[in-house]
Amino acid sequence: MSLVREEINMSVMTTGSFLALAIQCAPNVHPDTSLDVVRVESGMNPYAIAEIIPRSERKSGQRGFISYLPKSKQEALKIVSEIEKRKHRYSVGLMQITSTNFKKLNVTADDLFSPCENLKAYEKIITDCWLRGGTLKRALSCYYSGNFSTGQKSEPELDNTSYVQRIGYAPPDKKYVVPGTKDDQHRGNSPPVQSYERQPPSFESWDVLREYPLPPSGTLPPTPQSEKIKDDVNEQTDVSV
């Protein structure tokens, strides 16, 4: 269950401290993935809570959850106690582990307000989703909803975005003119760098003192694309008076 970050408070972790912890406590998940998930799930607040409102109790237009961003573990546990009295499901901590998973993971809400314990639980869930789903999109949907499709569907109460879009994936019908940096890195479309071997100079037979080397034979290295662009621009902007 993901949260919308509604305020900034002193309990929010820094990106650097989160990444260091993720590498230590969830080593089988790429840190980039963990960072994208935590930003959506809790805004890096280790005490974040989402109370899941049953459909039968929701008012028209109401979101399916209520976000709480306590500033201390004591305050967080008090909120959890109140939610449990209402017999509602809820999710807690950095990676928003849902209460329905507590028994299977052998953890409590108290345990999961520890950032490292929360990350360990997250690693178990998303690794299982990945192994069964086969793709990262399906794994993220599974982590969010327990199945491979719900997290890829738009949600009207969340600005008609899907969970995977909030993580960072582009909408299926969105075509950008300039691609994202991650897409570009994965595409690996940078042209290979060519190397050119320098040949020893040659001379005419009459140049006994070797004072006038001949131009090198063969094809010269091509002009870099950036230089071609500059030349084209210069030609287009060179207005004669």
How are the elements arranged and paired?
Elements: H1 15-25, H2 31-41, E1 49-52, E2 65-68, H3 73-85, E3 89-92, E4 97-98, H4 102-105, H5 109-112, H6 115-133, H7 136-145, H8 163-167, H9 181-187, H10 225-237
Antiparallel strand pairs: 1-2, 1-3, 3-4
Helix pairs in contact: 1-2, 1-6, 6-7
How is this structure best described in words?
The protein has helices at 15-25, 31-41, 73-85, 102-105, 109-112, 115-133, 136-145, 163-167, 181-187, 225-237, and strands spanning 49-52, 65-68, 89-92, 97-98. It has 241 residues and is mostly helical. It has a 4-stranded antiparallel beta sheet with strand order 2-1-3-4. It is elongated and about 105 Å long.
Please state the average pLDDT score.
81
What is the C-alpha radius of gyration, as a whole number of Å? Answer: 28 Å
Structure classification: mainly alpha
Spans with pLDDT under 50 lasting ≥5 residues? 2-10, 192-198, 218-241
Q: DSSP helix count?
A: 10
Distance between the termini: 67 Å
Pfam families: SLT
Protein name: Lytic transglycosylase domain-containing protein
Domain Transglycosylase SLT: 22-153
Biased composition (Basic and acidic residues): 172-187
Task: Write a brief structural summary.
This protein is mainly alpha-helical and 241 residues long. The protein has a single domain (15-185), classed as Lysozyme (Orthogonal Bundle).
